[in-house]
Amino acid sequence: MSTTAKTFAQKALERASGVNDLKPGDIADVAPDIYMSHTASWRCIAAFEKLDGAVLKHPERVAMVMDHISPARTSLVASQHRRSRQFAEARGIDKFFDVQEGICHLALMENGCVRPGDVIIGTDSHSTIYGALGALGTGVGFSEITAAWALGTIWMMTPESIKISLEGRLPLGVYPKDIMLKLIGDLTADGATYKSIEFHGGLTRDLSVSERMTLCNLSMEMGCKNAYVPPDEKTFEFCRAAGVENPENSALYPDEDATYSETVNLDVSTLEPQIACPHVVDNVKPISDVAGLKLDQVFVGSCANAKYDDLVEVASILKGRKISPTVRMMVTPGSRGILKRATEEGLLSILIDAGALITNPGCGGCAGDGGAMGDGEVTLSTANRNFRGRMGSYESDIYLSSPATAAASALTGSITDPREVLK
């Protein structure tokens, strides 16, 4: 065994492949711990059923989540959902999460399907979010998932790694979403293509698991292969609450003298709220450059920012206030568990009293499932992408922000610095 220092990605892929001393650029047959497919699982099923005599190699590793169009909007989608349900029942797939469970990533993490050190592949590019629990998550295509069903393995190239060190204290009105928009703007949409991003530094350690999810989720918008936060007791507590036994036993950590292709140091102490402007995520500007822009819609949702603490922040700003009559505001909780907790603790009543529309948990407007815009309309969204046509008309605009900025802007009807209502 070589004594060469290794990054997290090297160690995770070595464990999953059984190959020692993987170097960046090396390809190995990796046995993922989970293969996740979302609403379009029927695509995998259709391909799998064309494989003569194929059987699921590891049905216990297969996870399906009906999240992108939930509930079904058409008879075609309903039939696709039914096909997935029937396949899961016939093939003994226990990790099946139906339309009520919410977004795939949150459903898996909240139900104990993710452990530190796992390798997880999923038919959603934001599978990088699993790095918040110290796992290696990466997005793949439907054909790759189908092959993993049959073979139990998938080839992966070992990525180079970028070390991002976050230091300082977050100023008033600034959140992990702002950090990520700043990094995406600076590093660009392809600045980390097929690289593993590791988050380190004092601020990273101070962040909650939910906030770390935002870091790892948005990392995809820099083109990364995966993202990772070193697991600690916060991680282990989250995993135990989700039903994972002894999560600390599987945790992996990079060596202190590991080699990185790039090191980025960011002191957040002077950072101001950030906005991603149409029509790409790396078109980022400080909020002072776009404040006052009139809005037609505000969307709080997505796997990036529809977690419980995001809803707490939104509710704290909207409490006792009314949303501008010129704006429609949609709030889509990320999971059934988040919806339940928000209901029990009164957050939904605050949002409803303020004038917000609450929808069922799921991807919702982020995936174009509701909240469509007409020509010339503008949405401020807490999602992770603002591509042209993602929320309706190709002649509409999507801006991205933190939940706090979204809430403050819903009150005024235009993009508003949240520090103005948080003072």
TrEMBL record:
Q: Which residues bind [4Fe-4S] cluster?
A: 303, 363, 366
Pathway, per Swiss-Prot/TrEMBL? Amino-acid biosynthesis; L-leucine biosynthesis; L-leucine from 3-methyl-2-oxobutanoate: step 2/4
**Locate the Aconitase/3-isopropylmalate dehydratase large subunit alpha/beta/alpha domain: which residues?**
32-289, 290-413
The Gene Ontology terms for molecular function here are: 3-isopropylmalate dehydratase activity
- Cofactor(s) for this UniProt protein: [4Fe-4S] cluster
| Annotated cofactor note | Binds 1 [4Fe-4S] cluster per subunit.
Q: What is its EC number?
A: 4.2.1.33
- Which residue ranges traverse the bilayer? none
Keywords (alphabetical) are: 4Fe-4S, Amino-acid biosynthesis, Branched-chain amino acid biosynthesis, Iron, Iron-sulfur, Leucine biosynthesis, Lyase, Metal-binding
The reaction(s) this protein catalyses: (2R,3S)-3-isopropylmalate = (2S)-2-isopropylmalate
Tell me the subunit arrangement: Heterodimer of LeuC and LeuD.
Report the family membership. Answer: Belongs to the aconitase/IPM isomerase family. LeuC type 2 subfamily.
Task: Output the NCBIfam families linked to this UniProt entry.
Answer: hacA_fam, IPMI_arch, PRK00402.1
**Functional note:** Catalyzes the isomerization between 2-isopropylmalate and 3-isopropylmalate, via the formation of 2-isopropylmaleate.
Q: What is this protein called?
A: 3-isopropylmalate dehydratase large subunit
Q: Which organism is it from?
A: Hyphococcus aureus
Organism classification: Bacteria, Pseudomonadati, Pseudomonadota, Alphaproteobacteria, Parvularculales
